[in-house]
Write a structure and sequence with these properties.
The protein has 276 residues and is α/β, with parallel strands linked by helices. It is built from eight helices and 13 strands. Strand 2 and strand 3 form a beta hairpin.
Length: 276
């Protein structure tokens, strides 16, 4: 059995020694270990992969007894995460995730897809995954989000992935999934806002196009960043070419972010991430 041991707490001398001694006493093997100390905050982070058999609650209790009282300790078995995707009309991120899921490359179980339009329903059905159309017309944001929450409750996903879902989520919805909603968007923000950022980018003669994957919080597009990447463009590419390049980098960055999160490699500290 493989477990991920995740610890964050105020730093002090001897933390690694204490942790490894407890792991050893429980006859577990550390197959991988990473740690980091935020010097400004004097705060310690550790992610270790453990192999062996153990009673998780007992090991966590033993660690709590010897680590600082403020320590956050999790022992997570290695397994696929359960997720639900939210979509609007753009297919590129959804299609990429469906293919990765089909061939076992996602490290997750896509339980369902929810769309505020039904344009992508036929694509989802080809993969045998439930699609729920929850239209937003003539509803307040809160009413629409409540309807989506009702659907999500039947699946109880560990993470909600916004695969180019193009509506702002209400604070009440976001609060149900703290650091468990993952979004992808282009990295022109805030310079090029509005409905057609690629036209604006083309007119300004940008030289790079990027994408950012982040956790969603109550501040629009300001949640902790998980992954980013850029590609180069030039004057020979028009707005349509740039949009295609943007879609390519978006689906890659989203997949990279999900890989990190599902492997328990991401700690959230205030409004930034520590990634091992």
């Amino acid at each position: 059995m493989v477990y991920f041991l995740l610890i964050d707490c105020p730093d002090r001398k001897g933390l690694i020694f204490t942790i490894t001694q407890i792991v050893f006493r429980n006859n577990l093997n550390i197959t991988s270990n990473d740690e980091f100390v935020d010097r400004q905050q004097n705060y310690f982070f550790l992610r270790a992969e453990l192999a062996g058999e153990v009673h998780p609650a007992a090991l966590v209790q033993e660690l709590k007894a010897e680590l600082p009282p403020e320590a956050n300790i999790r022992l997570v078995p290695e397994r696929k995460k359960n997720i639900v995707l939210l979509v609007t009309k753009e297919h590129h991120c959804l299609g990429d995730l469906l293919l990765r899921h089909e061939f076992g490359d996602l490290n997750a179980n896509i339980q369902a897809v929810i769309g505020n339009y039904n344009e992508l329903e036929s694509l989802v059905q080809r993969f045998g995954i439930p699609f729920h159309h929850v239209p937003h017309a003539h509803k307040t944001r809160e009413e629409h989000d409540q309807e989506m929450s009702d659907v999500l409750a039947s699946y109880a996903p560990e993470y909600v992935v916004l695969a180019k879902y193009m509506r702002v989520l209400s604070p009440g919805f976001v609060a149900q999934f703290p650091n468990r909603i993952i979004n992808i968007h282009h990295s022109f923000l805030p310079a090029f806002i509005g409905a057609n950022p690629y036209r604006q980018a083309y007119e300004r003669g940008v030289k790079i196009i990027g994408a950012t994957a982040h956790f969603v919080n109550s501040d629009l597009d300001e949640g902790p960043i998980i992954a980013q990447n850029v590609i180069q463009v030039n004057h020979t590419q028009d707005a349509r070419d740039m949009a295609q390049s943007g879609r390519d980098v978006e689906k890659i960055v989203l997949a990279q972010a999900l890989k990190l999160v599902f492997a328990e490699r991401v700690f959230v500290s205030n409004n930034k991430t520590i990634i091992f």
